[in-house]
């Protein structure tokens, strides 16, 4: 229902308020009546909602009521009269229709052609081709400003008349400058009801990175809910709605019907209701086999367990301790090229790096295994049972079934706090709801249902067989420690120093600020973590090396965050107990320039003494890094900080484990200072990049000049047509695009003489409703949350990986002298 704004309502409401105040003290026996009368909202309560109040007010019998009540009833007579007037004067509940675009002239039309109204009530609009950045049509709302009342959203009948998806931007305006905007990707097909929430929102609000794919069938209706909205709007003052298509290079036809409201509907919540079944699967999605009750994507059938008939662990995969070979010709099964050497138990060496001229005549970095063989690390991150829990507390309505307390699967309930691991101020938690609370682990429950109490060891056996059969030879970061021993695969492990050391944060960090490497508590935390986690595995020859930390916030190599560490340091208090970095910065300036007057001149700010630099300097008052002198000072400090960080870690590692490689800190972004310090102290420089090829996200010449081998430690390609909703950092159109994306990047790694391996992130899909840590819910795994492999994707990976390893062996054939390496 909608209501028209009526000015008289306010005067009537004020009169009623005065009458009620006058009668209040005499009406104590009927306080509930008065309270309800006074709470009537002149614009939002419908007349029928206050009928009981009126009935009670006028049904008091003067002959039988107490004297006080009779007097109160007489006093309330004018109130009742005013209430009756209010009801009559109230804007009447109209039909749900808010706008019929076929009967209203647009208020604005920019590069949009309008067709005649069709017999089904829709009008065609051809958007573009546009000479500007978009084609737009806007409609005034009849009777504006319009008050739509307390509704969750608007609904618009629309249809994409093209044969392909069309991106559409919509905006709703009020008469006070407010604006609410949505962007949707309308799929081709029959008309849909486009649901537009009337408040800023996103899937993060519901605890997940991405929401369900649209459209959906709900209650017999084809519904497309706009799951993200930005801006603010006053729903009592609506005046205008617009729809546009960005950058149309040819006409894009949309058919528009009626815009209306339904106060009984909350389409946004409905889009998230009952979306996950008892096995942790999206109920409207495509899964792997007929037993799921959903469409099969592999053409295989499976009636027991969680594997299809093409699962190597269910057929004739080689045991995890055997050598796995690559074919001499891609796709063939002859002529071995070892992916993993047979056994390292009697080896004399450790994994190391070397730079040697290969058969192609180019000097090339490579890993060398303990038996002295060249090794290309083709790995998988997070091969683990312990990162698949999702928060269920407060979101129970999203699940069709959760175990009762007396159910055996209730053992997989837990409690997780993502905000304790990643601060609420970090970009990873921006706008996120449901960041902590009771959780449930669907992966563990699924495996327990399949294997019983021995599920952990049984799963470990299966996953080792699968990885080798799919051509992977390395367990990457965050893999279960139990697999280090049981899988008998080479592995790279990660250490995360934890402690109460100071951090440097410029307010734009994704995971939270970087450690203040000058804080003595940081060195203590590093030493403790290495003692506890590194020492027990120092003699394991399957261990390739150690990462310490992940995706630290060094800033970027250009742009406004080029000097993020220096700026974050300036914003701290050097006089405070934890102001270690600030004091180090001031000490360096003093050493570099001698006199504070020199710094004052370079930074163009008054400084009477060195102590003037210790107080916090807000970002908008910091010196201009566009000046060469300032940039040089900032870069020098960032070099000092990076040097302290990497030296602290490298020396602590070497003291405990002199055998294994220091593999760096997995750069998601970097500065020249951080890269140079990493190259001085690390054996391998590691990068996480989600780009089609190495050259699309890295300066390969600059990396080669650092004189150390490099490793791409995170990469994936995801889609939203299977499993959970988020397609990951590097999305592809659909499932069939994932294997080609991997092949393209793997060939890119082989083409570059600096890189020694590539790792896929991650083994499993993330939970449909988001992992407990940060709400990520990506279809980016080799297997689903049920541990079913994504076929035929993994079969393609096996062919690709074996062919790539064969190529690696060919180009690694020695034809020159070994140069610097470890």
Structural description of this entry:
This protein has 822 residues and is of the alpha+beta class. Helix content is 26%, strand content 19%. Strands 2, 4, 5, 8, 11, 12, 13 and 16 form an eight-stranded mixed sheet that branches. Strands 3-6-15-9-10-14 form a six-stranded antiparallel sheet, with no helix packed on it. It has a five-stranded parallel sheet with strand order 24-20-32-31-30. A hairpin with a 5-residue loop joins strand 4 (112-117) and strand 5 (123-127). Helix 2 (31-38) packs antiparallel against helix 3 (51-58) and helix 11 packs parallel to helix 15. The chain is globular. The relative contact order is 0.10. The model is unreliable at 1-95, 289-309 and 315-337 (pLDDT under 50).
